[in-house]
């Protein structure tokens, strides 16, 4: 139920969709003679569009999350295993056009392969099923396996978890499959902006993980009042940031994480 509700809610509050909804309602009201209300909604839509166009709101929000975790330096000598979260490729495009066709979040795979070589005795886990309500049977893990093999990784070392639909299920289903020992140390790989939610969930699940953030999309020192004029980049960055902040909020409110914005050990 949580998964379905989260998908429905996001469809409504996605800033791009919300912009069209508010603008469309405003235009309808203007056409039916409700001029004051219509002008108000159209003006609200325009104001929102201008704000994300002129100010780097999304990148500023994302930078806060990307700054929460850094990989431990130096990396430990002894690691029990390495986990990489799904979201690496679009399995729906891959099914139609071939496993290597979709745009790939190469940072996660590259780090996974690099660390697998550094820790040859570590267990390896890829966790990612389908986050789609329409196509729940097309699993990302099924397409990740041949791709990793083509990049030179011995996939005989890898456990593929293909049933999870979100970050919470990544942790819960993988733990049930792997049964890690409490004292074992694992490395967790995901996008830097997503690392706080992922670390919070894995910690709450009782899994001892160290962060290996990749795929940064900000410099980390963006300033909110640094004017620009980029609607497409602005709305995309804002949408990504809102999605992640809402995810953090709902995970915290529903007890899936213990803090709203998890941080490096000792900094919560």
Give an overview of the whole structure.
- The protein is α/β, with parallel strands linked by helices and 268 residues long.
- The protein folds into two domains: 90 residues, no CATH class; 140 residues, HUPs (Rossmann fold, 3-Layer(aba) Sandwich), CATH 3.40.50.
- Helix content is 50%, strand content 10%.
- It is built from ten helices and five strands; from the N terminus they run H-H-H-H-E-H-H-E-H-E-H-E-H-E-H.
- Strands 3-2-1-4-5 form a five-stranded parallel β-sheet, sandwiched between helices.
- The radius of gyration is 21 Å and the shape is globular.
- The protein starts with a helix and ends in a 15-residue tail after the last helix.
- The model has no long low-confidence stretch (mean pLDDT 92).
Structure summarized in a few sentences:
The chain has 268 residues and is of the alpha/beta class.
What is the count of structural domains?
2
- Rounded mean pLDDT score: 92
- Proportion of residues in β-strands: 5-15%
What is the SS-derived class? alpha/beta
CATH architecture of the largest domain: 3-Layer(aba) Sandwich
**What is the CA-CA span between the terminal residues?**
30 Å
Please give the largest β-sheet: 5 strands, parallel
Name the CATH class of the largest domain.
Alpha Beta
What name does CATH use for the topology of the largest domain? Rossmann fold
What Rg do the Cα atoms give? 21 Å
Which superfamily, in CATH terms, is the homologous superfamily of the largest domain? HUPs
Q: How are the strands of the biggest sheet laid out side by side? A: 3-2-1-4-5
């Amino acid at each position: 139920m949580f998964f379905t509700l989260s998908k429905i809610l996001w469809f409504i509050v996605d800033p791009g969709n919300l912009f069209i909804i508010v603008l469309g309602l405003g235009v309808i009201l203007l056409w039916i003679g409700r001029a004051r209300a219509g002008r108000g909604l159209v003006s609200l839509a325009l104001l929102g569009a201008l704000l994300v166009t002129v100010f780097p709101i999304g990148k500023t929000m994302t930078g806060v999350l990307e700054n929460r975790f850094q990989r431990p330096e130096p990396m430990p000598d002894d690691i029990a295993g390495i986990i990489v979260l799904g979201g690496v490729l679009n399995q729906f495009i891959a099914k139609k056009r071939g496993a290597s066709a979709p745009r790939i979040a190469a940072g996660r795979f590259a780090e996974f392969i690099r660390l697998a070589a550094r820790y040859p005795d570590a267990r390896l886990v890829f966790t990612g099923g389908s986050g789609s309500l329409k196509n729940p049977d097309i699993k990302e893990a099924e397409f990740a396996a041949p791709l990793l093999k083509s990049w030179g990784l011995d996939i005989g070392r890898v456990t593929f978890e293909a049933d999870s639909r979100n970050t919470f299920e990544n942790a819960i289903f993988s733990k049930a499959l792997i049964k890690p020992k409490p004292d074992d140390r694992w490395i967790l790989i995901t996008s830097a902006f997503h690392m706080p939610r992922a670390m919070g969930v894995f910690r709450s699940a009782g899994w001892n993980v160290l962060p290996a953030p990749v795929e940064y999309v900000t410099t980390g020192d963006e300033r909110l009042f640094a004017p620009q004029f980029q609607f497409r980049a602005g709305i995309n960055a804002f949408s990504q940031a809102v999605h992640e902040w809402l995810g953090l909020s709902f995970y915290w409110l529903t007890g899936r994480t213990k803090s709203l914005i998890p941080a490096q050990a000792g900094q919560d």
